[in-house]
Design a protein that fits this description.
- This protein is of the alpha+beta class.
- 11% of the residues lie in helices and 28% in strands.
- It contains 5 helices and 18 strands.
- The strands form 4 sheets. Strands 3-2-1-13-10-9-16-4-5 form a 9-stranded mixed beta sheet. The chain has a 5-stranded mixed beta sheet with strand order 7-18-17-14-15, with no helix packed on it.
- The protein is globular, with a radius of gyration of 18 Å.
Length: 283
């Protein structure tokens, strides 16, 4: 299934994309798509719905983040060897873990706002993993059983904040609007092999990133298992799993985001995002 939340910020409704690509409303079935709805039994019940009998949503409403109430937004750094090389950093021996602030989460096509004084805004197409049931000390073999589904993510970054103050990654990763997720949550059954997904990102129509999750250093299963040794993963938690090469930081000369730029990105089977970059403004 492709599950969505649509509508204006703070007023999103649950929905799904049917087999013909049409948006159907789930408001009469679910209150929302949050941690409680990531449960296998709830997803199995949704899978049995006769989607052609669900209300059809007209027009093209805004898509919000497909999961409400995300508790933890965890990220993995340098998880593609060729990206580590372009960043001038050694290939990690175990997953590099940092957090993105949940306040940076937004819809897939909402504007990305550069923070005040931004100098080095950057882009990163990434596979996102949504946890479906509590994971604590799970084995790598059992790890994917704890996944509800997958989402497309742009791990937007501010490199000056990230590195100038001594490698404080969280500071450069959690700025407002730096966490576009969606358009859909694609349930695990539709992604039988998360290590075989093509991915790409264009900036102003020019291809910047082309990659495939098969080149990850640490697989999704390894990441979920590893994280569960250090923290309890809860339903609705999101993990973004690293980016392939082609980020602005790795270019010669380096290239960074500016107001007016447009990022377009996608992952096979997980849809696409388009974000316009805007200058800082008070909300």
């Amino acid at each position: 299934m492709k599950l969505v939340r649509y509508g204006q910020p703070g007023k999103e409704k649950p929905g799904l994309i049917d087999s013909s690509g049409k948006l159907r409303d789930l408001s009469a079935v679910l209150p929302d798509l949050g941690p409680a709805q990531m449960d296998e039994k709830v997803l199995a019940r949704l899978a049995k719905l006769k989607t052609d009998q669900l209300p059809l949503v007209r027009g093209k409403p805004r898509m919000g983040c497909p999961v409400a109430g995300i508790g933890k937004f965890i990220a993995i750094g340098l998880n593609y060897s060729d990206h580590a090389k372009e960043a001038g950093m050694p290939i990690p021996k175990e997953p590099i873990v940092f957090s993105k602030a949940v306040s940076c989460i937004q819809g897939p096509d909402d504007d990305v706002m550069l923070p005040k004084g931004s100098l080095k805004g950057d882009w990163e197409v990434e596979l996102g993993v949504v946890i479906g049931k509590q994971a604590r000390y799970v084995t790598q073999k059992a790890a994917l059983e704890h996944v509800a589904g997958y989402v497309l993510s742009n791990d937007v970054s501010e490199r000056e904040y990230q590195f100038a103050a001594g490698n404080q990654w969280d500071k450069g990763k959690g700025c407002d609007t730096f966490g576009p997720l969606g358009p859909w949550l694609v349930t695990r059954d539709e992604v039988p092999n998360p290590q075989k997904l093509g991915m790409w990102l264009d900036l102003n129509g020019e291809r910047m990133q082309t990659g495939n999750t098969k080149t990850m250093i640490f697989s999704v299963a390894k990441i979920v298992s590893h994280l569960s040794e250090y923290m309890t993963l809860m339903p609705g938690d999101v993990i973004v799993t690293g980016t392939p090469p082609g980020v602005g930081l790795g270019m010669l000369p380096r290239r960074f985001l500016k107001a007016g730029d447009v990022m377009t990105l996608g992952i096979e089977g997980l849809g696409t995002q388009t974000q316009r970059v805007v200058a800082f403004r008070r909300r």
